[in-house]
């Protein structure tokens, strides 16, 4: 800079004038003066720079002198001594006597250097390049810790941790894996020390958006190192990497084309196993945490309609499975991807949830895609437990939205498997999707299986979705099965059925799931779902109860049914109770039929549900079979019919009892509902003891109405064994509030078919007629047949109903009685006629009796005629007596006596007595 200034001194400080005039001379003098001032300032700046450099140099020298003065002579001595000690071993063995080993260079995969022979830690391994494993950690000397393994390159494994000191020291941790590799194994200890932890697995890579490519799997964790022989714990296993998520599907660009499926989520990496602990003092290392599965990708969008067709959305990808690991350090499965959207077609199906690790809840299924019609939801992920942790299947995905059509169905719940002491519960079915022209159906509940000591409960069915103001409600999903297959007393329970959706017409409720038990625990079917409400039409039908089966000593019970939904034009009928089957030694009881729902002021009442059947299928079992009760009919403008009782049967040595029926519903403007029929009872085993009885279920009364409902018949009873059979009593007729009373039901038949039987056969009593403006006629008594040595007694006839503004009802005839052995036959007595303001009802006919063996036969008497209840009312005639016959010359036959007439009202005609029966 100084040289440059000197070079321009002459031209800038002594400028010549451009001309000889005064102006030019003044300008030249002015610029020359500027040059002279610049040169003066430059000289001062150069002097300042020289002084500044001199000052900095002096300060630096002073600092260096101070540092040198502060160096400890001992520090220098220490380095000199270590150098002298380490030089021979470094020269001969390539490692120091005291000191840490050198680290491997990054990107080379070089191994770490060994620590000092006497004392020192191993050096860390270098990271690997692509395709190259990480370097191993260096070994420690006599005392020290092994070096950490280097990270693996792409597709390669992490380096192994270095070995701990020969006397004391922990092994080094394994290196992290590269993508697609495995974490490095932890280093081992020798005598005293813990094993090194296994290296972690790297997470998988997700598929790209709009590619439909599946994710890559998570890498596995490395195994933990072993502890020292004398003391120490094994190293923990490395964690597995999370699986990569699937990429979303490709959107369709051609009109009417289907969008691409979303990519599947990848599986998570497996956890590394823990290292072995010391045999003397220590424990094994813990297993690492397994990686979670990746989420499935969303399906692509369907093509827009070009006049040739509707595009469908792509299906969502499935979630990835979790990596394997010991509970509770396990991974969760990936959630299923959402189905693709379609603006003119059906939405895509949601992806399935991934399988979760031991003891964790299964992943949820993906949601169905939106479209003109909604796509179906994906299936929930499977859950597994081998320990005391519970296994719960994943929830099914929700159905997709239907923009102009029906919503998509919900996905099925995930299954659950338990083999330990934890419970297994199936996943809940997904809810149906919303739709403008109908709600989506609920998904089926997941099944549950237990082969251990835990209980198994099927998943509940998903709820049907409302159809809004323009569509029908979606049906509820069926409950999942609960299955126990073991040796313990665990319980098996079927999942409850889903509720039907509301809509213009109500959706049906879902059926309950089955309960199945091969062990000695109980088995119970799931409860049926309730039907949905119909805003302008009928309500939905109630779901049936789930069936139940047992093979052991536990009781077996069918599921109760669901009630029908209310509706503007009438309630839906209730479902049937679930059947119960025992193949072991436990009792069997059919499920109860739900009561019918009211039809309100504008609709018919819903029918009550039929009771479930019960069956014993083991010939050595003394358990009881009992049919389920029928549900009562619902009230309405017309009453709903009562449900029938469930049948009961046994192949064993126990009792069988038919279920009682449900009463008919009342009517506000029409006929009352008829009562249900009692359930039949059957004993099919000829070796069944005399103490075992078959009893038919009772029939139920008819409902009241302007015309009364008819009473239900009694259930039949049949035995092939040595015991008794009794038919069920019939139901009475309902009251006729503005018309005829309902007729009574017929009594149940009773049959003993074993020639060696000692038990009696008794027919059920007939139902009485209902009261009304005109009395209802009564029902006939049940027939009785006996092939053994016991009695046969026909059922009594029911009494006629009273007529408040007309004739009384006729009495029911007595039941027929027949024997084929040594027992006597007694015909049933006829029922009495009902009183009336017109003419009293005629008495019922006595039942006939016949003896085809050595027993006597006595026919039943006729019933008494009904009274005339007002002045001028006529008396009813008595009923004729029954006839009797025998085939044995030593037996006697006696006909029944005719019934007496009723009492006439003042001024009324007297009635006639009934004729006697013939011997």
UniProtKB/TrEMBL annotation:
It comes from Mycobacterium parmense. Residues 613-626 have a biased composition (Low complexity). Residues 505-515, 523-542, 564-578, 587-612, 627-643, 870-882, 895-911 have a biased composition (Gly residues). This is PE domain-containing protein. Residues 332-380, 505-542, 564-643, 671-701, 870-919 are annotated as: Disordered. The lineage of its organism: Bacteria, Bacillati, Actinomycetota, Actinomycetes, Mycobacteriales. Signal peptide: none annotated. Residues 1-70 form the PE domain.
């Amino acid at each position: 800079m100084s040289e440059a200034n000197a070079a321009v001194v002459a031209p800038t400080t002594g400028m010549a004038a451009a001309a000889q005039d005064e102006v030019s001379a003044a300008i030249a003098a002015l610029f020359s003066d500027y040059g002279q001032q610049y040169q003066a300032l430059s000289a001062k700046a150069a002097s300042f720079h020289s002084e500044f450099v001199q000052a900095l140099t002096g300060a630096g020298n002073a600092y260096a002198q101070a540092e040198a003065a502060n160096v400890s002579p001992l520090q220098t001595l220490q380095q000199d001594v270590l150098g002298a000690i380490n030089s021979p071993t470094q020269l001969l063995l390539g490692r120091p006597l005291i000191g840490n080993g050198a680290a491997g260079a990054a990107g080379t995969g070089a191994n770490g250097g060994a620590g000092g022979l006497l004392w020192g830690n191993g050096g860390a391994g270098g990271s690997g390049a692509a395709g190259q494993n990480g370097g191993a950690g260096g070994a420690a000397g006599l005392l020290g810790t092994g070096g950490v393994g280097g990270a693996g390159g792409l597709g390669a494994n992490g380096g192994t941790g270095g070995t701990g000191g020969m006397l004391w020291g922990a092994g080094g941790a394994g290196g992290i894996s590269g993508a697609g590799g495995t974490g490095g194994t932890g280093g081992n200890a020798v005598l005293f020390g813990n094993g090194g932890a296994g290296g972690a697995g790297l997470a998988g890579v997700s598929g790209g958006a709009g590619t439909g490519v599946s994710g890559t799997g998570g890498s596995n964790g490395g195994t933990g190192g072993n502890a020292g022989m004398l003391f120490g714990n094994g190293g923990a296993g490395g964690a597995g990497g999370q699986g990569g998520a699937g990429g979303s599907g490709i959107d369709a660009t051609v009109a009417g084309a289907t969008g691409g499926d979303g990519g599947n989520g990848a599986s998570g990496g497996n956890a590394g196993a823990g290292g072995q602990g010391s045999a003397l003092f220590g424990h094994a290392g813990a297993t690492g945490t397994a990686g979670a599965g990746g989420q499935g990708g969303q399906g692509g969008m369907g093509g827009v309609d070009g006049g040739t067709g509707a595009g469908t959305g792509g299906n969502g990808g499935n979630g990835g499975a979790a990596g394997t690991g010991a509970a509770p350090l396990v991974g969760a499965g990936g959630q299923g991807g959402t189905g693709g959207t379609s603006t003119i077609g059906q939405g895509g199906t949601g992806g399935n949830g991934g399988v979760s690790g031991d003891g964790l809840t299964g992943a949820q299924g993906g949601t169905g895609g939106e479209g003109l019609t909604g796509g179906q939801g994906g299936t929930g992920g499977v859950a597994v437990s081998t320990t005391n942790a519970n296994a719960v299947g994943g929830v099914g995905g929700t159905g997709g939205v239907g923009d102009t059509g029906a919503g998509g169905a919900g996905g099925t719940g995930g299954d659950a498997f338990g083999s330990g002491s934890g419970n297994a519960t199936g996943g809940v079915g997904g809810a149906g999707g919303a739709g403008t022209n109908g709600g989506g159906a609920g998904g089926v509940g997941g099944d549950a299986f237990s082969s251990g000591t835990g209980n198994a409960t099927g998943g509940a069915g998903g709820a049907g979705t409302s159809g809004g103001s323009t569509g029908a409600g979606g049906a509820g999903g069926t409950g999942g099965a609960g299955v126990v297959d073991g040796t313990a007393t665990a319980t098996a329970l079927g999942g409850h059925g889903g509720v039907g959706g509301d809509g213009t017409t109500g959706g049906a409720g879902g059926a309950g799931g089955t309960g199945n038990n091969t062990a000695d625990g109980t088995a119970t079917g799931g409860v049926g779902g309730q039907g949905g409400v119909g805003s302008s039409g009928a309500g939905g039908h109630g779901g049936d109860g789930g069936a139940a089966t047992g093979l052991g000593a536990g009781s077996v019970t069918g599921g109760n049914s669901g009630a029908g939904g209310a509706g503007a034009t009438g309630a839906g009928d209730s479902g049937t109770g679930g059947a119960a089957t025992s193949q072991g030694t436990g009792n069997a009881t059919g499920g109860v039929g739900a009561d019918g729902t009211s039809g309100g002021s504008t609709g018919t009442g819903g029918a009550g549900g039929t009771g479930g059947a019960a069956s014993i299928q083991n010939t050595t079992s003394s358990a009881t079979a009992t049919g389920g009760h029928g549900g009562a009919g619902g009230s309405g403008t017309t009453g709903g019919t009562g449900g029938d009782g469930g049948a009961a049967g046994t192949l064993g040595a126990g009792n069988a009892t038919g279920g009682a029926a449900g009463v008919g519903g009342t009517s506000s403007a029409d006929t009352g509902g008829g009562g249900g029929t009692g359930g039949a009872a059957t004993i099919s085993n000829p070796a069944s003891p005399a103490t075992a009885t078959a009893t038919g279920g009772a029939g139920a009364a008819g409902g009241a109405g302007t015309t009364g409902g008819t009473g239900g018949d009694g259930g039949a009873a049949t035995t092939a064994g040595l015991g008794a059979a009794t038919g069920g009593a019939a139901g009475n007729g309902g009251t006729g509030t503005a018309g005829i009373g309902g007729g009574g039901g017929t009594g149940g038949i009773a049959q003993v078919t074993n020639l060696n039987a000692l038990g009696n056969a008794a027919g059920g009593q007939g139902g009485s007629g209902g009261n009304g403006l005109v009395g209802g006629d009564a029902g006939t008594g049940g027939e009785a047949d006996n092939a053994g040595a016991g009695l046969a007694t026909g059922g009594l006839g029911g009494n006629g109903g009273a007529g408040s503004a007309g004739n009384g009802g006729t009495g029911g005839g007595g039941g027929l009685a027949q024997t084929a052995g040594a027992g006597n036959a007694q015909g049933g007595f006829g029922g009495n006629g009902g009183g009336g303001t017109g003419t009293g009802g005629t008495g019922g006919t006595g039942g006939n009796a016949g003896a085809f063996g050595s027993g006597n036969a006595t026919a039943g008497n006729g019933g008494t005629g009904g009274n005339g209840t007002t002045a001028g009312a006529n008396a009813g005639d008595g009923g004729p007596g029954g006839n009797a016959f025998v085939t044995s010359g030593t037996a006697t036959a006696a006909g029944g006596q005719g019934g007496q007439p009723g009492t006439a009202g003042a001024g009324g005609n007297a009635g006639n007595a009934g004729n006697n029966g013939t011997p």
